[in-house]
Amino acid sequence: MIRTLTLSAQLRQLALALPLIVLTLGLSGSDRINQLERVLKRGALIMLTTESPTTYYRDGRGENGFEYLLVKAFADHLGVKLRIASQPSLHQLLLSVGSVKGDFAAANLTQTALRQRAVKFSVPYYHMTQQLLFRSGHQRPTDLNNLDGTLVVTRHSSHSERLEQLKNGNPRLQWQEIDHASMSDLIKMVHRGDIDYTVVDSLAYKVSRHINQRARPGIVISEPQPVAWAFANFGDDSLLEAANAFLTDFTTRGELEKLTDEMFRQSHYFSVANSALLGRMVKTRLPKYRQLFEHAAKLNNFDWHLLAAVSYQESHWQPQARSPTGVRGLMMLTQATAREMGVDDRIDPKQSILGGSRYLAKLRARLPSRIAEPDRTWLTLAAYNVGYAHVEDARILADRQGKNPDVWQNVREEFPRLSEKAVYQTLKYGYARGNEAVRYVDNIQYYLSYLHLYTISQPKLDGKDTEPSDQPMPAPASL
């Protein structure tokens, strides 16, 4: 049977651990300087986290994740390097806060009453609700008292805390808790039918839903809860105060909104039907061309997922694809572009992928060198779709509006105006279907997000890699 600790027992564990943490810090001699000074002297900020699609992970672009990028900005602000100390479970993460393992925890942690008794929280930078998920094909739950199956959540999570609060008004409510399972793991288990229900944060569902289409939202069981970084509940507050100052400034300058939009915007384009089709194509068609994408990406300094996303947008990975205008192949090259890139046979997969990637690299190189990533990539994609000249016109419109023309979001807002006669007549290259270019880039961003998430979601709960499969994942033995 699964052993479930009561909330008071969880709190006692955290409280008992604090003296040991204080002792450890005392033995290291670090108590002679404050926490911020210790970080500056070390030259590195150590972030405690758990690995998941919304916190921290490694992919073809290196280290990534919303929490990672936010903390990286904080480390850059302090002028120090960032080190990652990934913890195997949420419980271990909370126990490690303030120890020699790390300086603070950043892992989409919601600020709850119980946790506030064990750690100190920064100012919030996001808000999330808790959602009960069920598997499509089954009756949508409307009452926590009448769940027909097994409800499983992560041990020591805010979800188990919330269920404890709700149990008074729902006497038939029962659940089980497991360690070493992230929210994305639990969503996958519902999707595959290994468990009947789970509770996760709205952000975790939002990001993973296009990978695990059979996991569907049932009941929202909480009000919006603040998400914040967790610091030790002892010692001085110098590092916490520095974090609060940074987060306040980062938010005021619009950088937090920009980061959030960049990381999570693609979830707005979710469609069960489109994602299901993409999922099938990832399993049946993509494996035939993956090595070609990887080879072309290496030659032209791209992420292979990006090239694959462009090709899916262009042809759905069909080498014989043809458009009404005569463009052909996996990368849908025009005859002129094919000649320019040295492609003799546009329907040959290798030639098409190499030619398309070289053309993308050429467009990217034409952009002013001052344009940074990821804006450089998004502008390159728009040029691949609508032509470099029209991208320059859209950038001119952004500049006329007093916006930075080197930022994709600013240019994106101006693209639709390229089809307005009063506007395009004032531009050098005239009319263009600007809305189409916007949809084109939005789609590729969505496909890119899907492919990255799909890649990192392939390891099973035991950490072993697995080939994509439609077979159900075995439920934990204790279930």
What does it look like?
With 479 residues, the protein is an alpha/beta fold. The chain folds into three domains: 7-125 and 227-268, Periplasmic binding protein-like II (D-Maltodextrin-Binding Protein, domain 2, 3-Layer(aba) Sandwich), CATH 3.40.190; 130-222, 3-Layer(aba) Sandwich (D-Maltodextrin-Binding Protein, domain 2), CATH 3.40.190.10; 272-456, Lysozyme (Orthogonal Bundle), CATH 1.10.530.10. Helix content is 48%, strand content 12%. It contains 20 helices and 14 strands. The chain has helices at residues 7-28, 35-42, 66-78, 90-96, 113-116, 158-167, 183-192, 202-208, 238-252, 255-264, 272-284, 286-300, 304-315, 335-340, 349-366, 375-386, 388-400, 408-414, 421-424, 434-456; strands at residues 44-49, 57-59, 62-64, 81-86, 104-105, 119-121, 126-128, 130-135, 151-154, 176-178, 197-201, 215-220, 225-227, 230-232. It has a five-stranded mixed β-sheet. It has a three-stranded parallel β-sheet with strand order 4-1-5, sandwiched between helices. α15 (349-366) crosses α16 (375-386), α16 (375-386) packs across α17 (388-400) and α16 (375-386) crosses α20. The longest helix is centred in the C-terminal third of the chain and has 23 residues, at 434-456. The radius of gyration is 25 Å and the shape is globular. The N and C termini lie close together (7 Å). The relative contact order is 0.10. Mean pLDDT is 85; it is low at 1-8, 14-31 and 460-479.
